[in-house]
Design a protein that fits this description.
- By secondary structure, the chain is mainly beta.
- It has one domain: Hcp1-like (Pnp Oxidase, Chain A), CATH 2.30.110.20.
- The protein is built from one helix and eleven strands.
- A six-stranded antiparallel β-barrel has the order 1-2-7-10-9-8.
- The mean pLDDT is about 90.
């Protein structure tokens, strides 16, 4: 079954992503057996994804988003399986920044690689407010 990834930020048309990648990490100090293990705050990578060339007005809105340093109120990734009768997985970002934009152009097609990050990230209803971890 094909995986369908859709990305919808505030004020911009929904886009279909070809790939999506992100990670969570934390450092744990396990060096001293006489004290409790301590953890550093969680860090979350940018949400990196690739889209096929969207309509020209969407490309323009993406370029404006990154060049103006605009913060969107929210954005959602919806991940589902084609033909499956299960609910889509949702990843929700709040206070969303577009952190990178790059185009790859060849004679047959064009793709755009994007990265976004949100101040509050919710994956599978597990919410991390990164502003509280400063």
């Amino acid at each position: 079954m094909a995986t369908i990834i859709k990305f919808k930020p505030d004020g911009i048309d929904e886009m279909e992503a070809l790939t999506l990648s992100f990670s969570y990490s934390s450092v744990a100090d396990v060096s001293n057996r006489d004290i409790d293990i301590s953890f550093q705050p969680i860090t979350i990578s940018d949400f990196a994804f690739v889209i096929k060339e969207p309509k020209p007005d969407v490309t323009k809105k993406l370029l404006e988003w990154i060049t103006t340093h605009e913060v969107k109120g929210s954005a959602t990734f919806s991940i589902s399986q084609a033909g499956a009768n299960i609910s889509a997985r949702e990843i929700k970002l709040q206070q969303v920044c577009l952190t990178s934009y790059s185009e790859s152009i060849n004679r047959d097609d064009k793709t755009i690689s994007l990265s976004v990050m949100g101040q509050v990230v919710s994956v599978d209803d597990v919410e991390v407010d990164l502003s509280e971890l400063r």
